[in-house]
Amino acid sequence: MANYEELLQKLQDILNVPFQIIDIPINKHTIIKDNEPSHSFEEGDSLYFYLEASKEEEKQKLLSAPAQHVEASERALIEWIISSLHQNADPTEIVKNKEVNSLEQLGSWIQESVDKDKPLPYPEDLSVYEKQFAKGMIPFYLTYEGAHESGISLKALNKLLQSYFDGKVLLVPLEEDRWSILAELGLVLDNTDEDMDQMALQQKMQFSIEEELAAFTDGLHEVIANEWVGVFHLSVAKPLFNIAYLPPTISFLREITELGKKFKVGEHVYFPWQFHLERLIYSIPEEVRANYLKGMSNTSILFEDETISTLETFFQMDCNVSETAKRLYIHRNTLIYRLDKIKQETGLDVRTFKDAVLVKLTLFMYKVTKTS
């Protein structure tokens, strides 16, 4: 006998539609014709699917759902699933395949919208995702550069994600070795009040979300990176409440990831709110950047590896000499000597605000030009 309860649960989880199984007398509806069941029918506001009949008990088993919540394409698919059940097909695999196809369709819509750089009509048969966004979804963008020629198994990655998030997330395939991970607010952020309206929730998160998202994303990257050989890059955006904003957000995260590779060599997790200056520098035409750096050629000490490492740490420590020396594991006087040497050869003293800003911008332009 087919496992209709399992089918019921899977359909409810995927389509977010209330289904129920009912038993009614065979003579109540003309379901059986020439020993062949019709697939489905509507009565009032309900849609019914024939499951099976027992002539001995004079009963038939039906699957019902609100008619207005089931699209025509979904209705046809359910009919096919039930038909396959009668042929001893695995209902779990059928429903899983439907979900995979649905996520692939979502990914195609995102990718096409990003490539054409304009909003495209949202596929009607993906309305279940539209409803999920109304409650708030956090988008991640994951890329892989690795040793696996065949790439990362979608099934294996999905299994790892469900475990880390401790709940169901949407793993949306984009280009090869590129994915969008979509997670409900409650799976990522703490202290989200379900009774709080959207406006109040957004205002609350404006001030607390960045630190919380950063910690969660760092942990997620560590888990994924430890699972496979290769390099993963991960970026995250703040919550979305409208699926229409998903393609431009993924496009934005893709840009942030590319900037992260150029400006933050050695790091693999990127947060958009930390890239304001980098985006500004990258928007400067390449020819303008090259001409500026040519004019700074007499300050080549700035572009030596030791100098770059020293200055980056110095800026990270808010130009604090003592803290920078500790971070670099060198004596304070050694750091002062390096800074004095930079001043002597370039005329720029990074211990002053004006020169620190100029050197910071110069290093940014050098990095992006070098990696272009």
TrEMBL record:
Record SUPFAM superfamilies: Homeodomain-like
PucR C-terminal helix-turn-helix domain segment(s): 309-362
Signal peptide: none
Cited InterPro entries: CdaR-like_regulators, Homeodomain-like_sf, PucR_C-HTH_dom, PucR_C-HTH_sf
Protein name: Helix-turn-helix domain-containing protein
Lineage: Bacteria, Bacillati, Bacillota, Bacilli, Bacillales
